[in-house]
Specification:
The chain contains no helices and eleven strands. It has strands at about 5, 10, 20-25, 35-40, 45-50, 60, 70-75, 80-85, 90-100, 115, 120-125.
Length: about 130
């Protein structure tokens, strides 16, 4: 059973930084691609970033390129999302998701993922 738990969210001022963690259990992280998604009130869940099982490939939504960095530590069963230069429009609930058989070019598509965490709130406000 895929279990994912997000942490690291909170309230931050514009221009600030946060690092989100996605801690996994119940499966061997080494074999899974991980995606980060976010959902703002009244909006659909959108793909933010994703990383291949090996960590050798990453992808980012245009809105976060150059500001967010995804990484993984399979030994710690954890995937990270470093978020810098945060903007009010980054405010959302952030989710991580896992899938073993994803086609990487579709890794920002939420329907491609089998397992999801419960989310962590990120609020960017003065």
């Amino acid at each position: 059973q895929l279990q994912l738990v997000e942490s690291g969210g909170g309230l931050v001022q514009p221009g600030g930084s946060l690092r989100l963690s996605c801690t996994t259990s119940g499966f061997t992280l080494d074999y899974y691609a991980i995606g980060w998604f976010r959902q703002a009130p009244g909006k659909e869940r959108e793909g933010v970033s994703c990383i291949s099982s090996s960590g050798g490939s990453t992808a980012y939504a245009d809105s976060v390129k150059g500001r967010f960095t995804i990484s993984r530590d399979n030994a710690k069963n954890t995937v990270y999302l470093q978020m810098n230069s945060l903007k009010p429009e980054d405010t959302a609930v952030y989710y991580c998701a896992a899938d073993r058989y994803i086609v990487f070019r579709r890794c920002l598509v939420r329907e491609e993922y089998d397992g999801w965490g419960q989310g962590t709130q990120v609020t960017v406000s003065p």
